[in-house]
Write a structure and sequence with these properties.
This protein is α+β, with helices and mostly antiparallel strands and 260 residues long. The chain has two domains: 103 residues, Aminopeptidase, CATH 3.40.630; 143 residues, Aminopeptidase, CATH 3.40.630.30. The chain is built from seven helices and twelve strands. The radius of gyration is 18 Å and the shape is globular. The mean pLDDT is 94.
């Protein structure tokens, strides 16, 4: 199962990363990599094998640094554990990148995900509706991740304005307060969808909200004809997801370069 899921991931998700921009962003190719601009943080992704080493690889990295430096933007170079050449992480470090926490990539056939018990009756899980909910999601994200709420809401609203139905935000609400939120993103031209953006207020953790939001998005994915679900998960989510039917296929580490 592991090899089958990883092969589908490479053939579909990683190909789409190099060819399809998310709503509100711009994608440009530079040889074996694609750079995405227009979001709060720039983004670079590459083919599993970049096909270059040494000075040629260093020059490729330097071009991306110059591009985002000219825009005054922070950006992330997304790597996977099996990427080639093996020297890529060292080259990124030498170019001034900082690694962030490694995440586990988990995949599940949508029909293999087991049902989850609903949260407390005091909590309502529903799809987000309209700009007001997006603003509340931004405020929740800012509170949980210490991010800029205004920047997050600008990005969410810009993406919503260009979205063609590929993104669904799901929230958990209690006593009129948003206590958890996440989103489902269909990967265009593939049979995959990603589970992203999970944020839960600290005082509400450990109450089954993460599983409840996964279950709600699984139901939406099934209705949309999705075959596979993918998650890049930080601890402690992987064990929860594995119990729900997901398989860990690799890890991914973001390398971040800030202006200057």
């Amino acid at each position: 199962m592991h090899d089958t899921l990883l092969a589908a991931y490479d053939a579909q998700v990683r190909t789409a990363e190099l060819t399809t921009a998310e709503p509100g962003t711009r994608l440009e190719r530079d040889g074996p990599v694609a750079r995405i601009s227009g979001a709060r943080r720039g983004f670079v992704v590459g083919e599993p094998d970049l096909g270059m080493t040494g000075p040629e690889l260093a020059a490729l990295i330097e071009r991306q640094v110059r591009f985002f430096a000219a825009r005054g933007e922070e950006f992330e170079w997304k790597t996977r554990a099996y990427d080639r050449p093996a020297e890529l992480p060292a080259r990124l470090l030498a170019a001034g990148f900082t690694p962030e926490e490694t995440e586990t990539v988990l995949i599940a056939p949508v029909d293999a995900v087991t049902a989850s018990a609903p949260p407390s009756a005091a909590v309502t899980v529903r799809e987000a509706a309209g700009p007001d909910d997006l603003r509340r999601i931004a405020e929740l994200s800012a509170a949980v991740f210490d991010s800029d709420a205004d920047a997050v809401v600008r990005e969410l609203l810009a993406r919503a304005a260009e979205d063609d139905g590929t993104t669904t935000h799901v929230v958990a609400e209690a006593a009129g307060q948003l206590v958890s939120a996440a989103r489902l993103e269909l990967v265009g031209g593939t049979t995959f969808a990603g589970l992203w953006g999970g944020a839960t207020r600290p005082e509400w953790r450990g109450r089954g909200l993460y599983r409840a939001l996964v279950a709600h998005r699984v139901a939406i994915a099934k209705a949309r004809g999705v075959r596979y679900l993918q998650v890049d998960a930080l601890p402690p989510s992987p064990p929860i997801l594995e119990r729900l039917g997901f398989t860990a296929v690799t890890t991914t580490t973001p390398y971040v370069r800030r202006p200057g």
